[in-house]
Amino acid sequence: MDWGYGFLNWLRGRVGFGTRAPALMLSSMNTMPRRVSLIIHNPVIRSEGGRKLTEVLGWEDPDALAAQYIADLREISGGQVEYEIVERIEVDGWVPKRDGFVYDENTYLACWRNQAGFHQPDEADYRAVAAEFDLARKVETGVIDEAWLFAYPYAGYYESRMAGPGAFWCNAPSLPLPSSQLSRRFVIMGFNYERMVGYMLESFGHRVESIMNRVWRGRFGEANLWNRFVRYDQVAPGRANCGNVHFAPNSVQDYDWGNPAYVLSNCDDWLTFPNLAGQTRQVNCAEWGDGDIRAHHHWWLKHLPRVPGATQGILNNWWVYVVDPNTV
Predict the structure, then answer these.
(1) What is the pTM (predicted TM-score) of this model?
(2) What is residue 178's predicted lDDT score, i.e. its pLDDT?
(3) Is the pLDDT score of 265 beyond 80?
(4) Which of 308, 328, 306, 314 has the alpha carbon at shortest distance from 219?
(5) What is the C-alpha to C-alpha distance for residues 97 and 158, in angstroms, rounded to an integer?
(6) Inter-residue contact 307 to 273 (CB < 8 Å)
(7) Residue closest to 197 by CA, chosen among 301, 287, 124
(8) Is 151 left (phi over 0), alpha (psi -120 to 50) or beta?
(9) Beta strands at 160-163 and 263-265: parallel, antiparallel or unpaired
(10) Are 325 and 185 in contact (CB under 8 A)?
């Protein structure tokens, strides 16, 4: 186990800190380093001259995507979130499905080119992937803090999924792994290298939504600051704040990030958190990139509070919870 968690466990025993101790300690750090296992399923297609699947179909370079994602989250979090890829594994093979099915190059390429016939159920066999790459042991011993799984469309990955003791919904059902192997929670991100980095930020945004819903559960009305943060005009006319991952403050449907209509919003309040002074002004899509997915997600994530202190017993730096589910 890494020194930080070992020290916190020792400190709890010495002075009787409760479960919030790690969050309170981490919130004082300038950066939150997170170690990542990067696992890429990118099969070699023999019938296409031995080129990799990404090359055959003209898809994105997963290493470039990972680098952009790391840089984006560092910038968005004000330099606090520092992901480091400590191991990179590239697999010349296909992700196993929950029911045992595995594509080969002929079956997959036929499905893709016809846009039909993809295997159902689509879900990947997460237990098999976790076992093959020894994820539980690596997390438990502090080698890694989370895993990023890159693959092709219809690989069956969720955008994010949590495992470990007390794991909870993280845009997917919690992943049961043998409890004897783990004393820490960790998140497994699933990325599709057909798509650009904006979609990776969307996956991260849904992780944020799940974790912050959990952090603020049990608080109601105006006391639930997360529910206030995600308000948008369609559900709370005249009281929009920042909206959520799919709905900007003025959106009227999913992914409506390019809506030019103006609405009244409290979004600026979150840049001075915890001083929610009730600042309101008219905003529209010009604020968040005129429909660009990456720009919207940058704008939305930059409004997450990330300052010292606590409100209602919850840290004012929400990034602590988002990057480390053990603090929830």
Answers:
(1) 0.91
(2) 80
(3) yes
(4) 314
(5) 12
(6) yes
(7) 301
(8) beta
(9) unpaired
(10) yes
